[in-house]
């Protein structure tokens, strides 16, 4: 498996150094041995930081984290030495794509399943093209319902969520069988598949390593490749972050 360019990794490490706490989600996906190893490495690499290991899905560790948030007063930002030239080089390697579209079904459509299928297509094309994913999120909203998918890194599963179904399962970016059967990804109130005349709003947020124009093309072409829904993009922004220019600097004593 490939990883981010070292200059992109530099940005991530600096963000961890600056943080007062480190909060690790999705710990339900790791074994006890892996969690112990992760805790040990964080303690070694970022000494003195409080680490919370939790799972928003199962609720494990959430109560401790919330209690700490309510009781703790921040000590202020950590002073971190930053090489701004290297930071800028890392930022320039990342592309952003933000899009908003109106969707009109051409036939009866299950919005959750449709969104997950397109997300798998995008994730696969990104991986095949060598674009390492920083984060990838999409949502489609219609008639008070919202369906979401997200991926946190290349090669990982695309997770599908239905806000009206707490059992929302996971769909593999490789197109493997869902952890939960497809019918269990539908609303628990057994609302029928939405009619073809039902419109929806689509939002796309992608940050990945690569040229922004190339990332935008992958997103657009993936929606063009499907025939169930007419997707009309109203807003599309694709860009590389600019070089950080700090107004104030902390002088070294």
From TrEMBL:
Q: Note the Gene3D superfamilies from the entry.
A: P-loop containing nucleotide triphosphate hydrolases
- Region annotation Disordered: where it falls in the sequence: 156-177
Which ranges are annotated Polar residues under compositional bias? Answer: 160-176
Protein name (database record): CobW/HypB/UreG, nucleotide-binding domain
